[in-house]
From TrEMBL, chains A, B, C, D, E, F:
<keyword id="KW-0413">Isomerase</keyword>
<feature type="domain" description="4-oxalocrotonate tautomerase-like">
    <location>
        <begin position="2"/>
        <end position="64"/>
    </location>
</feature>
<dbReference type="InterPro" id="IPR014347">
    <property type="entry name" value="Tautomerase/MIF_sf"/>
</dbReference>
<protein>
    <recommendedName>
        <fullName>Tautomerase</fullName>
        <ecNumber>5.3.2.-</ecNumber>
    </recommendedName>
</protein>
<dbReference type="InterPro" id="IPR018191">
    <property type="entry name" value="4-OT"/>
</dbReference>
<dbReference type="InterPro" id="IPR004370">
    <property type="entry name" value="4-OT-like_dom"/>
</dbReference>
<comment type="similarity">
    <text>Belongs to the 4-oxalocrotonate tautomerase family.</text>
</comment>
<dbReference type="Pfam" id="PF01361">
    <property type="entry name" value="Tautomerase"/>
</dbReference>
Length: 69, 69, 69, 69, 69, 69
């Protein structure tokens, strides 16, 4: 019954369905292996955040990407 | 002054305005009845999440819905 | 499979077990009645926040309480 | 390495890039000045929420705005 | 620069340091493998929630555990 | 009516009351100056997270601190 929230920037059109599935399965498996949590009640929510809305080092990710970071 | 965040999947075009209003009022009333919290400063935020971005039982809800779950 | 997070201040020793149960049941019932969501996979997490850590109107709730607010 | 999440309603087309940058820089500077936190690992995420999805005083912000509030 | 929040119930005294480390490393590796995200700016926060404060199926986890669930 | 959540590690006994007040006031003022938001309904919640529970670069902050980082 764990709850996991993953926030990543939305880049190049956003994550593919397969990438999201891989994250959901990977986190659920990790919680089962590490803490024996029941996958059936493990909830995972992925938030894709606009690069203008995500800041690191006092800058927007969109600006960091323009510098190749 | 409580803060409540509700995350649900976005299905069939998403929640109607009335459904959102019902959730906001229902949660605010519940906090007033149960804990005597002041509705005037009770904040409720509803996040509608894409079915590909919401996982349960290591699967995306979109896939579970295809199986009628 | 909705996820609900409720943040309230921790006052007078915190919520009783019964108050928490009432909030969990009340929110789960509301989601079932409003959106026909399955209670079995509805997750509710209650965070009790120290009054010094909760701000409203640029003030800590602890200070507002000292003024009887 | 602090993490800050800011939720505001999406009004008049949403925040401008400059407003988002100002929030990101302002919060990062505040954490550096107050707690000497390293800007390089300070993460800020801004969520812009639909006015129908944001409730205060048991009402949707969209309805409060119609009354000029 | 992804941000991940994991909420689990606090049981049997809570997670060990090693379990927390395993979750932090496991999620960071998953994001690197799946989305090529830089571990150096991947933030993971683990919240351990009291079993009375965590609800599933309209019940507190503490009560479900008493029934062996 | 914005909502802001600040997560920082709990170090050296945690933040002082004054530091928390400074963060609450600083963020509320920033939202008023930048977006003309009403302080009276601006909610700020500060979460102090155990250093074992906070990960950056696939490591727990507690371990990074032992290396003087």
């Amino acid at each position: 019954m764990p709850y996991v929230n993953i926030k990543v920037t939305k880049e190049n059109g956003g994550l593919t369905k397969e990438e999201k599935q891989k994250l959901i399965k990977g986190v659920t498996d990790l919680l089962q292996e590490t803490l024996h949590k029941n996958p059936a009640s493990t909830v995972v929510v992925i938030d894709e955040v606009d690069m203008d809305n995500y800041g690191l080092g006092a800058e927007q990710i969109s600006d960091r990407r323009k510098r190749g970071e």
